[in-house]
Design brief:
By secondary structure, the chain is mostly helical. It contains two helices and two strands.
């Protein structure tokens, strides 16, 4: 802090200003105080931002915990069966161990067969492009009626 002597006070009273040297020192002090105030404000804002981010993260975690708690099984819901433990290795390779029989799904009942299908395109086949594709039945030959003369 710049020291203001009695002479500088007298000069200010008579002329209305301090000496150039003292005026320069006072301006530097003022700039330093302003810079320090800006740095303190910046640090305060950064601390507030960190605090806000931490609160939001804690809020998200608490929401996740609430959802997990809500998703827990209630007594009315059946409990999951524990996973079957694998037997200890006997030294045999996987191909030597017998495989369990797996149930194959029942084949789907096929629909789409038409007993009276007609050959629409005239190629001699009915139900073209399906598993039921087959030669078309030839229509019954018309009996030739005798011509009368």
């Amino acid at each position: 802090m710049a020291k203001i002597s009695g002479w500088e006070k007298f000069r200010k009273a008579v002329t209305g200003s301090y000496s150039e040297k003292l005026t320069y020192q006072l301006a530097q002090e003022k700039a330093e105080k302003l810079a320090a105030a800006k740095m303190a404000e910046k640090a305060r804002l950064e601390a507030a931002a960190k605090k806000k981010a931490a609160e939001e993260a804690a809020k998200k975690v608490s929401k996740v915990e609430k959802v997990k708690a809500a998703a827990k099984k209630t007594p009315s819901q059946p409990a999951k069966k524990p996973a079957a433990k694998k037997p200890a290795s006997t030294g045999k390779t996987a191909s030597a161990t017998p495989k369990k029989a797996t149930a194959k799904p029942a084949p789907k009942k096929a629909t789409g067969y038409k007993a009276n299908a007609k050959d629409g395109d005239g190629d001699g086949l009915v139900q073209d492009g399906t598993p039921w594709e087959r030669p078309a039945k030839k229509p019954a030959a018309k009996k030739a009626s005798p011509k009368k003369k």
